[in-house]
Amino acid sequence: MPLLATCITPESARRAAHWAEGMITLNQPGGAHRDTLKAYRDAGGRGSAFLQVHLSWADTYEQAVETARHQWSANVFGPPLDQDLATPAHFDTAAGEVSAGTVLDAVWTSAEPDQHVEWLSAAAEDFDALYLHHVGQHQKPFIDTFGEKVLPQLKGT
User: What one-character-per-residue DSSP string does 47-73 give?
Assistant: First the structure.
């Protein structure tokens, strides 16, 4: 089993390149996950590279957005805020101020399976494997839809 480094920033990826046997990162606004992978490779990183993709799918776009906002608004904070909030109530209060646009930068959100295929296919060009994380609580419709309409289109990518 290879020793993988979890890298969120190019700086952490460069450090990990010296000891890790592979890396895992997550989708980030503006495609910053690609910058993290590039930094890892440029610093001599070897082994497989994995991408965890946070996504939201529902029957309608409005539902997908609502799911993303409800489940992920408190997960978009960076340092020092994400390290300094003392209680869950503090996170809830801060999350209430997060715009839908900020959440949608962090969570690939669409009601269209083909849109998810497009995003995931592009990500698969750079990474060896993708881990899909549907941020919603209703997993069965997501699993059924992605099993039927998304994953078959991604085979071989």
Answer: S-EEEEEEEE--SSHHHHHHHHHHHHG
For the entire predicted model, the pTM comes to 0.89
Write out the E strands in the chain: 4-6, 22-26, 49-56, 108-109, 129-134
**53 touches 24 (CB < 8 A):** no
pLDDT of 34 over the 80 cut: yes
- Between 84-93, 114-123, 144-153, the lowest mean confidence (pLDDT) is in 84-93
Residue ranges of domains in the chain: 4-70+106-154
> Tell me: the pLDDT tens digits for 123-140?
999 999 999 999 999 999
The fold of the 4-70+106-154 domain, in CATH, is: TIM Barrel (3.20.20)
Inter-residue contact 43 to 72 (CB < 8 Å): no
